[in-house]
Write a structure and sequence with these properties.
Layout: E1 12-17, E2 22-29, E3 32-40, H1 52-74, E4 83-89, H2 93-110, E5 114-118, H3 119-125, E6 150-155, E7 160-167, E8 170-176, H4 182-192, H5 199-207, H6 230-246, H7 250-281, E9 285-289, H8 296-309, E10 312-314, H9 326-337
Parallel strand pairs: 1-4, 4-5, 6-9, 9-10
Antiparallel strand pairs: 1-2, 2-3, 6-7, 7-8
Bound molecules: 5'-O-[(R)-(carboxyoxy)(hydroxy)phosphoryl]adenosine (KG4).
């Protein structure tokens, strides 16, 4: 079954996401997304990475106005909600606690069920978010929903996994990073170049003007479908250190080429394993999800694979690649159909598998 496996009419789900540094709330009604409001936290930029304590404090400030705006934009009152879906983990504990506690308080006060959502499952199911079809293109969005089973490359700041998605609630990790995530490697390389945080969008922008063949960095030799990015990170760091000895302005002189070469190396590593997994598992429906799926080079590589290997590819809209509550609400809608609710005492989990 490709879509929500029950009649979603008249069901209204509020989704809440607070696992890292984005406070987000979304409303889905009758199977369609009505609002998706996200407050990002600029406070971390000065530190070159997310500071957990500051993230929790910012969530505390943001959660009430963000939920309020999501309801208003959707034109829905809280009394009309059928259930509240929230990210239970994985993520930063202090950040999660804000969303989890808020969801519990609101659900208890309204007397409606709570639905706990695995953040990673949410990223994968972002492909099932449906917006109201435009009257002049009613079919377009339907075509972007993948059929089960499909393969999903889940690449974010905390994860790099190849997931075999057999059903909305049946996902198998066929390969995953044994050390750093792809996004983490990009962010760290950006940091050593002094380019700012988060590095992903900066590297992406610079890479468009650079030569991807200018520099070569180490690629890992890891068996099976697993990934490793720590060797690449070290190779980038050591090379850069040597080049800086000869030219203290090396980064300034070569930042576009460095970005393009780094991006190409990471995209090649990701696609090589994904291609092997798709071939061995005989799957031609291939999706990408998570923050790094915003990357232009990775999106191009997906399109290239679709042409060369006959894949049907699924690339989410930019707004559903990074952390957002729409993906939590759609996962909540799937679970609502199975009456898969969670008890009030359910704790947040900082680490949890798919
Ligand atoms: O999924 P996400 O928002 O957060 C979690 O890790 O859960 O992913 C964030 C990651 C960061 O590492 C960020 O640098 C990366 O996604 N990212 C990108 C791009 N936009 C965000 N990486 C490459 N190119 C981009 N355009």
């Amino acid at each position: 079954m490709n879509e929500v496996h029950f009649n979603p009419n008249k069901i209204t789900i509020l989704g809440i996401e607070s696992s890292c540094d984005d406070t987000s709330a979304a409303v889905i009604r009758d199977g369609y997304l009505l609002s998706n409001v996200t407050a990002s936290q600029a406070v971390h930029e000065a530190y070159g990475g997310v500071v957990p304590e500051l993230a929790s404090r910012a969530h505390q400030l943001n959660i009430v106005p963000v939920v309020d705006q999501a309801l208003k934009r959707a034109g829905v009152t809280k009394e009309e909600l059928s259930a509240i879906a929230f990210t239970r983990g994985p993520g930063l504990m202090g950040s999660l606690l804000v969303g989890v506690s808020f969801a519990k308080g609101l659900a208890a006060s309204l007397g409606i069920p709570m639905i706990d959502v695995n953040h990673l499952q949410g990223h994968v199911l972002a492909h099932f978010i449906r917006e109201k079809p435009l009257s002049d293109s009613p079919r377009g969005e339907e075509e972007s929903i993948p059929p089960f089973p499909f393969l999903c490359l889940l690449v974010s700041g905390g994860n790099s996994q190849i997931v075999l998605v057999k059903a909305y609630n049946d996902m198998e990790i066929v390969g995953q990073t044994i050390d750093d995530a792809a996004g983490e490697a990009i962010d760290k390389c950006s940091k050593v170049m002094g380019l700012g945080y988060p590095g992903g969008p900066i590297i992406d922008r610079l890479a468009r003007q650079g030569n991807p063949e200018a520099f070569t960095f180490a690629k890992p030799a890891i068996p099976g479908y697993d990934y490793s990015f720590s060797g690449l990170k070290t190779s980038f760091l050591y090379n850069l250190r040597d080049w800086l000895k000869d030219d203290p302005d090396f980064v300034e002189h070569h930042k576009e080429d460095l970005a393009a070469s780094l991006e190409k190396t990471i995209v090649d590593i990701l696609m090589n394993k994904l291609r092997r997994a798709a071939k061995d598992l005989k799957i031609k429906h291939v999706a990408v999800a998570g923050g790094v799926s915003a990357n232009t080079g990775l999106r191009e590589a997906f399109k290239d694979h679709a042409r060369r290997y006959g894949w049907t590819i699924y690339i989410p809209k930019f707004s559903y690649t990074t952390d957002n509550a729409a993906m939590i609400a759609i996962t909540g809608l799937f679970k609502y159909g199975d009456k898969d609710f969670c008890p009030m005492e359910a704790p947040a989990y900082s680490r949890v598998a798919l």
